Amino acid sequence: MDRQALNKQFLLGQLESIIPNAKLHLLMLANSTIMNISVSQTLPVIGDTEGSDLERVPGNSGIWVGIFCVLVEFLLLFVVYFVAKAHNPEAFSSGPEKLHSLAGTAITVFLLTSGYCMVKAVSAIRENKQKTSTKWVILAILFGLGYPIVKFFEIRWNVAHGIDGETGVFYTVYYYLTLNHLVHVTWGLMGLAWVAFRTGLGAYNSENYSGLEAAGLYWHATDIIWLVIFPFFYIMR
Amino acid sequence: MAIGRTELIWLSLIGLTLVGALLTETRGIGWPLTFTVAALIAVKGSLVIDHYMEMRCANKRIRNVLRLFVILIPLMVIISHGWGSFVRELTTIY
What we know:
The complex is a heterodimer of chains A (237) and B (94).
Chain A: H1 3-18, H2 22-28, E1 45-46, E2 50-51, H3 61-87, H4 89-94, H5 101-126, H6 130-160, H7 169-200, H8 210-235
Antiparallel strand pairs in A: 1-2
Chain B: H1 5-23, H2 31-52, H3 60-82, H4 84-90
Helix pairs in contact in B: 1-2, 2-3
């Protein structure tokens, strides 16, 4: 279905919600010149450049299979967290006090800022600004790299303070979940590097940018998971 | 650089993160902290889903699955705090 047809379908839906049997009335007027109005400029604009298309699958179908697999994987890991917490409430309430909360906050800020850069990269490519889009993806990678760098120093700090995977059940779950997330962030960074390379080569434009958008979506999915991990291990004490 | 909707969303997310960081200075897990953490996860997750991922104007099934994720986790936070002993009994192998 092309964009104009989708726009008309959307407008009809809106009319139906205001005027009962609107479609019937419009059918009666179908042959009149009144129907020759252009509806393409009457739709609400959502986000920076996105038109309203309620059946649109952002990115591509493949990336959503990957994202849902990651979400299910982490949902199971969060269940493990809750079960371990239920059996060891003392360990889980005192555990976060020994962790470096500033490191957790810094990682959150880096990931959210990197995600913002990816939103800007997708917005730029929709306007056919390939150079601008490439710059935003590179910025997203640079901010994203803040995560493994902070994590490296955080783990060094932990080890220096006697916190390793065998310190207690809370820290075992903490290392397992956060390092698992770090692995997914690494895939995400590799994906961003690939789309930065391709955007730089001019592979994407306003008509074809699903690869760039898909990489951004995966990156945002890792954001969402971290937004859960952060309070679990750094705040809930 | 003009402040658009994307910048406001980013600022909101950073602001909520800093609120979370301030909570690390609080002592003791009570219901207020539990509800605040649950709300922070739900709000920040929804902002990322709706605005960063642009799911507000995309396929309804995908959007609903993502939203379910950021509703389910806060619910689990509340359940684990209020009914921890029930979860313990439920997951004990005798």
